[in-house]
Amino acid sequence: MRDSPEPSGSAAPLLIACALGIEKLALRSGDRSGARGQVTVLRTGMGPDNAERALLGALARGPLRDAAVVASGFCAGLAPGMHPGDLVVADETRGAAGATVCTSTELLVKAVARAVPGRTVHTGPLTGSDHVVRGHERAELRATGAIAVDMESAATLRSALSAGPRPVAAVRVVVDAPEHELVRIGTVRGGISAFRVLRAVLPAFHEWHRSLLLPRR
Helices in the chain by DSSP H: which ranges? Predict the structure, then answer.
């Protein structure tokens, strides 16, 4: 899938999808906007199959049928020099079923930079995997042009668009990088810096969402 939908003028809600309980905690605790009624944080569970199942189930229900979707949470950085706490704003997600272009990436990058000043924001392709990527696999994925990898974003955005046209985006916080490789996924719970960044980035999602709802001039 190569095309993302044009922004609409309807007051559609925002659905933020993440895999882990610790990610959901960060995202929910970071919401001080007063917009809870228009924002749903959905924990999908780990892996592309769980992401697809959870997204399609959520979007089948009336209130979220037309929701804009953001895939968020933690990721593994692929580029040398990346550090835990860096941010990745995808311009596209890549999975086994193809690539999905994200909506208004430049707008989202600017919003993220404002929300978390001083943090490095990387932009580029976010690739998918069905397992935790380590060692030589990291270099192989980097050779494809991807800058980061996670297990759910590609399936999340592909499933969202399969349920109908809508804005989609993916924003991840690096917790695992080439020079800072995790021993196991469970150690993400010790990523205090990444947790704080994920909690702080939520206003950028609201800004992106509000901008998409503005009528075109």
Answer: 21-29, 48-59, 105-115, 135-143, 153-162, 192-200, 202-213
HSE (side-chain half, CA atoms, 13 Å) at 144: 17
**Residue 87 corresponds to which amino acid?**
L
pTM to 2 decimals? 0.86
Strand 68-77 and strand 87-95: pairing? unpaired
pLDDT tens across 44-72, in order?
999 999 999 999 999 998 889 999 999 99
Q: Could you write out the DSSP letters of every residue in 115-158?
A: HSTTS-EEEEEEEE-SS---HHHHHHHHHTT--EEESSHHHHHH
Measure the CA angle with vertex 50, ends 47 and 51; round to 5°. Answer: 80
Q: What are the beta bridge partners of residue 94? A: 99, 127
Compute the CA torsion angle 124, 2, 19, 145 (nearest 10 deg). -30
Q: Any residues with CB less than 8 A from the CB of 175 and at least 6 apart, and which?
A: 74, 75, 76, 84, 182, 188, 191, 194
